[in-house]
Specification:
Hypothetical Protein Pfu-838710-001; alpha+beta; about 40% strand; about 180 residues; eight-stranded antiparallel barrel
Length: about 180
């Protein structure tokens, strides 16, 4: 499976307006709050996720770095929620990521015209939104990108370019590194 994903950083006002618009025009999929540890590598992203809303957990590997394109080959494996801390310890012990960033995201999911939309807030990214479509094959990427761009345009959300996502990710990582 491949995740086709686009993002936008929002002001608090734009976030509230989008939440109201999605409440009227989209299908609500519910709260999806998460505690996440990101293991950041130059060419991939490993995540250990506790879904607070669903009382579940998973490990996820995206084979592309943020800002290196809108498509991510992704592998996910669920595990018992009570093993969340153990799974984080395993990942920290066997991998050598460039950086580990942990935090909680407040998240509400919607479906809008075949696009899954995650309206989110986290300490690192602030108010933001992700538009996503899962496809079986990269031959479906262009059509998925178009559907996402069309949905974002209809909702008046200016999507970030890949370069903007990469630059924002660098800023977040630099803040987490703290002063030298």
């Amino acid at each position: 499976m491949y995740e086709i994903e686009h993002r936008a950083v929002l002001t608090e006002e734009a976030y509230t307006e989008l939440a109201e618009k999605l409440a009227r025009e989209a299908t609500p999929l519910g709260s999806d709050d998460k505690e996440v540890s990101y293991y950041i590598f130059p060419d991939k992203l490993l995540k250990v996720v506790r879904n607070i809303s669903e009382k579940s957990a998973k490990i996820s590997l995206k084979l592309t770095a943020l800002g290196a394109g809108s498509s991510f080959q992704e592998f996910e494996v669920p595990f018992p929620e009570e093993s969340f801390e153990t799974m984080k310890n395993i990942c920290e012990s066997i991998s050598a990521p460039d950086q580990v960033i942990s935090g909680t995201q407040k998240r509400t999911n919607y479906e809008y015209k075949g696009v899954e939309i995650a309206l989110k807030w986290s300490e690192d990214w602030g108010y933001h939104v992700e538009f996503e479509i899962m496809v079986n094959d990269l031959s479906e990427k262009e059509a998925a990108d178009t559907r996402i761009r069309d949905a974002a345009k209809e909702l008046s959300v200016p999507l970030m370019t890949e370069e903007e996502v990469a630059a924002f990710s660098v800023e977040v990582r630099a803040k987490k590194n703290g002063p030298s």
